[in-house]
Amino acid sequence: MPALQPARRGDDATEVTDLPVPAPSELLTDDVRRWVCVRCRAQNGLATDSCATCGTSFETLLSEPPDVAVKRLRGLSALGREIALLVGLFTLWRIVGSVSILSESSAFDRGRWLWRFERTLHLPNELSLQRQVLAHKAIVESLNVFYLAAHIGGMAALLIWLYVRHRDRYRRWRNVVVAFTGVSLLVQFVSVAPPRLISELGFVDTAEKYGQSAYDHLGSGLVDQLSSMPSVHVGWALIGCLAVIRVSRSRWRWLAIAHPALTGYAVVVTANHFWLDGVVAAVLVAAVVPLTARLKNRRPALPDPA
């Protein structure tokens, strides 16, 4: 800290009486003998010349233009808001899954109706598809794990990639995710039973069979499990595929098609969804993508937190 200089003659040539120079200890009490790092907001003792939290030197902070620190703080604030928004959206999705405006019995009736309607449309039989893999334990267990984790992991990876590598496109696709999930939540207030819970159809609950069910700790209620229409798993996978293909310029971007294809296969083979659950999700995505593109984004681009 620079030493305090005695008073000197002013520019107007007026004599200023020299005053005694107080010692630094007389100016700083124990409560204020700190300096705050503008990068991480950590407090550090005056005896230290670098931040103990982020390692930035005091000299670097003094030489850094003020607007750099301000931009960094704004970037971190924007990142915090994005994380809070997405965590809140996911939490809301899980909460709505436990709410239904109709009875549980009617959810099973709608599930049976979907099954009959699919036969009318001559869609592939989900039961036959499941029976092809039931004898292969490793495959079934892998599909169970994929169903449990791929939608969350895939969406997190997509949003992080967009935020870090394609900041100018991030908000566009984040809005698609939020809009699709919000509409899906409204539809899911009308509960529909998944095929694995309709015993007379002959499906096997593969997750329950191998002790991989996500519902083991949710109590005895069924409402949490009756929000199968539409399939958010399929919708998120489709959004991720579209985002990668449209944003990336790599020749490998077309491999992203494998994600929704495998997701659609997994949700059907594990008996968590009917084909039509995925079809409705695809229709919602097809509607949401152009609608969100028309929204005028009047907000500035998200600042860089780095």
- Which percent range fits the helix content? 40-55%
Radius of gyration: 29 Å
Structural class: mainly alpha
Task: Give the ordered list of helices and strands.
Answer: HEEHHHHHHHHHH
N-end to C-end Cα span: 28 Å
The number of helical runs is 11
Taking strands numbered 1, 2, ... along the chain, how are they ordered across the largest sheet?
Answer: 1-2
- The dominant shape is elongated
**Annotation, overall tally of beta strands:** 2
- Taking pLDDT < 50 over at least 5 consecutive residues as the criterion, the unreliable ranges are 1-17, 21-30, 217-221
Content of β-strand: under 5%
Please tell me the overall pLDDT: 77
Which oligomeric state applies?
A: single chain
Number of spatially distinct domains: 2
For the report, how would you describe the main beta sheet? 2 strands, antiparallel
Main traits of this protein?
306 residues, mainly alpha, two-stranded antiparallel ribbon, elongated
Descriptive report:
- The protein has 306 residues and is an all-alpha fold.
- The chain folds into two domains: 1-64, no CATH class; 74-294.
- It contains eleven helices and two strands, in the order H-E-E-H-H-H-H-H-H-H-H-H-H.
- A two-stranded antiparallel ribbon has the order 1-2.
- The longest helix is centred in the N-terminal third of the chain and has 31 residues, at 66-96.
